């Protein structure tokens, strides 16, 4: 995809979403079930869609919530936690869900304030036999909506669960919603099944058990926290107050148009804290702070902005975080989980520290079981999502936690005396300096299906950019299909996979040699895709 002339520029008024029209469409438009994109579909993390296109409307939320209520019956003994982000569709979707949960007699802890994804995971893990719903499309554009289910292990539900919920929800839609149990909101709120809950205090008070908050406090570092209008702005304010931090919190209220954002690479508003285009506003302010950071709308992702290097590539920060945590916590003997499209720098760091690496398909859900089983202390995705264990090796969050990842960058600076950008530079001096890139291209549903079902036999070449191909991967270390394909040589690799949420496919590539080598890898990967189509 070419770079838009709007990339990195403040969003112009003419591209802002009409919030009234969007919310009206949520209630008035009905999905066309003959259109596959209007059906419920759980991707790597829940169902996502758009009210204007008929893929995220009240009918979908009624059907999905009813399916969740039916699924958990007899399986989950205690309450369900529900939270939402600051997308315009999240508030009406949560209210719809509450009507269905109350009618199904599901004891539900809720708030009409905004709640980050990791806070729901933390609540599940600190309350026995509970589960949760998060109403969020993550960093997606303002017109989008999302809805995901977190199981009793605290993390995004696995494919067996989500496939059951997806199938049942589509069955309910096909039957005209006649199986949906529902109470009017006013009646639901008066019922004994809906209980208002303070999510902020338990999470914020517990942070000192996963991050060295005393060290951060004593350092008095000047911290810039860009809440990016997301669900965690009240949490950063509470963290600042409780731990008496020298922290400035900004973009700290809900703006459903996200008019303060800078446009992403394609000219759209997208709250992607890993994008230098979307993060241009914070990058411009980096020298005002010792360390600064931002988060996406549901605060499960992190973007670290250092004085030394500006916005860190997510892969760089993952490698630095793993190296730091392993050498500053008692995590000896535990491994690391990484997605197959994450940088090989992680593998080199882990090899140097004698850490076992578990490579998985894309999606944080693949780290949930290994974390629960005590197999890994850290799980991270190339798209700036990660979480790790408490200091005592106990579970903190089995979903991505952008808050602890941003605070970790402050702890690093306080302890080391230099920021994470310098830390990464030190790693490159030791292991080499990889060049990593992702290219997106438009793909039809049929083309995405082709890419999802590739096999090693589809690759005829024996070399990659002049090097012998060492392995062709379609199944990850955990035995799961990767939904695409990865080709690995000694000093470079590429992976092809379709997006689970957008009509694009992605080519990831990395070289440990130089820019020319990376371009050659990308060129050969594109040629393979062209042949497949």
Largest sheet: 7 strands, mixed
Number of domains: 3
CATH architecture annotation of the largest domain: 3-Layer(aba) Sandwich
Over the alpha carbons, how many angstroms does the gyration radius reach? 22 Å
> Span from first to last CA?
18 Å
**CATH homologous superfamily of the largest domain?**
Alpha-D-Glucose-1,6-Bisphosphate, subunit A, domain 3
- Order of strands, widest sheet: 1-2-6-5-3-4-7
Low-confidence stretches at least 5 residues in length (pLDDT < 50)?
A: none
Indicate the structural class. alpha/beta
- Strand portion: 15-25%
How many DSSP E strands?
23
Mean pLDDT: 95
Q: Briefly note the CATH topology name of the largest domain.
A: Alpha-D-Glucose-1,6-Bisphosphate, Chain A, domain 3
Task: Report the CATH C-level class of the largest domain.
Answer: Alpha Beta
